[in-house]
């Protein structure tokens, strides 16, 4: 399978961007830009409730 964005020479990342309360990181070790516009997958992590009762 070939990535259409790679073929079109579009600046993008194949990793998942993880946006946390204090940091932003990407699952792709070769990622050079943490801009959400470059990532097809963005996960926002927030506060997790201590109890669900």
Strands across the major sheet, in which order?
2-1-3
Order of helices and strands: HEEE
What is the mean pLDDT? 87
Query: Count of DSSP helices?
Result: 1
Strand content: 25-35%
N→C terminal distance: 46 Å
* Count of individual domains: 1
Which structural category do the helix and sheet elements fall into?
A: mainly beta
Q: Whole-number radius of gyration?
A: 14 Å
Oligomerization state of this entry? single chain
Tell me how many strands there are. Answer: 3
* Main sheet characteristics: 3 strands, mixed
The low-confidence parts are: none
Approximate helicity band: under 10%
Per the principal axes of the C-alpha atoms, what is the gross shape?
Answer: elongated
Key terms for this structure?
single chain; 53 residues; mainly beta; 1 helix; 8% helix; elongated
């Amino acid at each position: 399978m070939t990535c259409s964005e790679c073929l079109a020479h579009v600046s993008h990342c194949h990793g998942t961007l993880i946006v946390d309360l204090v940091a932003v990181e990407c699952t792709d070790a070769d990622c050079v830009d943490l801009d959400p516009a470059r990532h097809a997958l963005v996960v926002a992590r927030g506060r997790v409730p201590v109890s669900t009762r």
